[in-house]
Amino acid sequence: MKQISFLLIIFALVLAACAPSASQPATSDEFDLNDWDSVLAAARGQTVNWYMWGGSDSINAYVDKFYGETLKERYGITLNRVPVADAADYVNQVLSEKEAGVAEGAVDVMWINGENFFTLKQADMLYTDWAQKLPNAALVNWENPAINLDFGTPVDNMESPWSSAQFQLVYDSDRMSADDLPRSYAELKDWACANPGRFTYIAPGPGGFVGTRFLKGALYELSGGEAMWKTFDQATWDQYSPALWAYLNELEPCLWRGGEAYPTNEPEMVTLFANGEIDFSFTQDIGGAGRWIKDGLMPATARTFVFDQYMIGDFNYVAIPVNSPSKAAALVLANLLLEPEFQAAQILPENGFGLGYAIDVTRVTDPEAKAQLGASAAKLGEAATPAADLARSLAGDTAPQYQGMVEQGWLEFVVQK
Fold first, then answer.
1. CA-to-CA distance for 35 and 23, rounded, in angstroms?
2. Contact, 321 vs 107, CB < 8 A?
3. Which of 111, 210, 271, 340 is most open to solvent, judged by the fewest CB atoms within 10 Å of its CB?
């Protein structure tokens, strides 16, 4: 163990030595989080090292153009985007720096997922009590568990959202009227059994996470809400999961091919929809059916919609390590990500990102900002779900333990019953 600890120390020291240094390192006591002007003053002249997955050339270009140029021009901050193959790499770096006692680490901001957030939170390596003090945090619906929980782990002001993806359904406006669409899981079952063979869903499982999400939304509705599913409780599962299997078994004979087969992923479901075999498909794209239409895989009349409740979504976040040497610049970057003009830019596929809002657009009151958001939404066209509908129906995901239980239970109590 001593040898491992020694190697970790050497590894962290080498990384810290190789990492770009901030021109004016700031520690948390060099500004007042309650005084944004003091944050801006401390951040000017700093370099902020943003460690993020670098596997997408379009996302990399988007970050450099939209955030890098703005940080320099408006705030005198240099953005250094540090691409890595896997987020675990920089999480391990932060943990190694802790082991080595490195006071000023290499990482200022991280694009982070729920699993890595939990790891660093448990290790006390995250800067605390900042996310809701950003000026643009007022545009975030922090009361919604979809945002204040990151895959079941309380955010606790240690990370700030950047973007989102949310479950939606696709229909063809040439075949169906919007007035006839089901707006709940109960109404969907009634519709499916009145139109046998015209609906199916993606088989839940590792390759069919959208199908798993569909089942979880049904579980929320059948149990009367989502709050009880945010922390794991075996008794809650035992009480309510039988209602989910009953719902799916009642639905099964009404499905495409009588439930004898299921599409295994989104492209398979899109093909069934495009061929006219079924009347609904699934998506999580902020552009709704737009991507499929552009690729010639759906008719131009394809549209997306949501139920009134329980449309599960998840969020991408950024976090700041406790040993970041440029916390002020990191805070400015996190606030910039929530700026309505950049939230408007990120939803457009042509800008290279194409993910959903982190803010609740209904909270934006500034006329110019509202106009920017409206212009971007208009560019997505009629194939996209209105932003207000997405915000109204948004539900958070379950605690992670339920993921496998839903998938295994479906196999046991629906497929193999």
1. 22
2. yes
3. 271
